[in-house]
Amino acid sequence: MARALRLAEQGNYSVTPNPSVGCVIVSATGKVVGEGFHYKSGTAHAEVHALEQAGLLAKSATAYVTLEPCSHYGRTPPCALALINAGIQKVVIAVLDSNPEVAGKGVKLLEDAGIVVKVGLMQQQAEQLNIGFFTRMRTGRPYIRLKLAASLDGKTALQNGKSQWITSDDARRDVQLERAKSCAILTGSGTALADNPRLNVRSNELPDSVAKAFLQREAQPLRVVIDGKNRLHDELILCSDGSLTRIYNCMGNNKLGSTSVSQVQLPLPENERHVDLSRMLDDLGAQGLNNIWVEAGAKLAGAMLEANLVDELILYLAPKFLGGGARELLSTLPKQDLQEAINTRVSSITQVGPDIKIICQMR
Predict the structure, then answer these.
(1) What are the two backbone dihedrals, phi and then psi, of residue 330, each rounded to the nearest 5 degrees?
(2) Contact 205, 226 (CB under 8 A)
(3) Using CA atoms, how far apart are residues 86 and 65, in angstroms rounded to an integer?
(4) Nearest to 88 by CA among 111, 105, 121, 71
(5) E strand or H helix at 162
(6) What distance in Å separates the CA atoms of residue 268 and residue 180, rounded to the nearest whole number?
(7) Maximum average pLDDT range among 104-108, 240-244, 291-295, 330-334
(8) Residue 346, class by beta-carbon neighbours within 10 Å (0-12 exposed, 13-18 middle, 19+ buried)?
(9) How many CA atoms lie within 13 Å of 160's alpha carbon, on the beta-carbon side?
(10) Is the Cβ–Cβ distance between 212 and 206 less than 8 Å?
């Protein structure tokens, strides 16, 4: 199963919006005879690749699969049926599929065919591998990763606004890796106006193997911009380069004419100038997006954290001090008591070039 999980990881940069899945087939004599992983939505699943490699040796073998085999006809036939037809004797599954179209039906199909099924081996690792997929299936919303970058004294820019670059080239390349795993990249209109970013994945900054996998995806992550005050316009790259951008605002913006830009109106009931962030996440989930990478300014980042809409925080700290008057990392309401602090749990600390990368779980 550990090998199947490593195989599944190879689909992380190309498989969206599907989950990453790996499969290993072991013969009755204990020899690995087939391996496969799902690398792109609409193509053969992991089990099919592994069965093709195993051929006739799949008969009476055991299949180790990181996710419950599908049982329905979608863009590909059911994998459970493929395992049955190949003569597999036993199937070991890491975790059941939360997709209502599967959700135990794959196991039932296998068991009804006389195949022995075991579930739960390395379940935690399998769930973490596809945390965005499971989050969307269980809550209807994507998994939200908020990226922040600051100096050691928690500043993001000088008093005059200069911020390029606080972190190193290594940290920025690491951000490209994180973007490449995401279904969408989200920012606010303030960042869009200040930086005029492309908000895309620069494949030339990825390791060769990752770049190859990402290019198989044949699409950039969807760009998402929150623009409650209709400040965006067609001169911005995000609104004019022909790539897809989804904009959430309170009322239609007639300054945006590109056919690649879609607008969704989600005003807060009590304030027509602010976008309802909670409803926005519901809408993004309805679009089939699993993982959202957020790169936003202090105001939007603070609003999402205070509204408890962030699942994971990724903080890059540069070994420098910007000193007094420099701009703060977050813009939030003042706290009157330590009990009001936004709490988190550090799950990982690594060094990326000269910088420190801290990953925190928010739930």
Answers:
(1) -130, 145
(2) no
(3) 15
(4) 111
(5) none
(6) 32
(7) 291-295
(8) exposed
(9) 2
(10) no
**Maximum alpha-carbon separation in the chain:** 71
Positive or negative, the CA dihedral 161, 166, 169, 175 is negative
Edge to edge, the sheet with strand 312-318 lists 261-265, 245-249, 222-226, 184-188, 291-295, 143-151, 312-318, 355-361, 345-352
Q: Mean pLDDT score of the chain, rounded to an integer?
A: 92
Query: What's the whole-number mean pLDDT along residues 180-208?
Result: 94
Return the amino acid letter for 295.
E
- Per-residue confidence band for 315, with pLDDT thresholds at 50, 70 and 90: very high
Whether the ω angle into residue 17 lies within 30 degrees of 0, i.e. cis, is: yes
3-state secondary structure of 345: strand
8-state DSSP, 143 = E
pLDDT digit string, tens, across residues 249-280: 999 999 998 889 999 999 998 877 899 999 99
For 1-32, the DSSP string reads: -HHHHHHHHTTTTT-TTSPP-EEEEE-TTS-E
CA separation, residue 201 to residues 22, 149, 166, 175, 180 (Å):
25, 18, 20, 9, 6
Which among 300, 110, 44, 105 has a CA at the least distance from the CA of 194?
300
Question: Catalytic residue at 270?
Answer: no
* Catalytic-role residue among 9, 35, 47, 178: 47
Peptide bond into 165 cis (omega under 30): yes
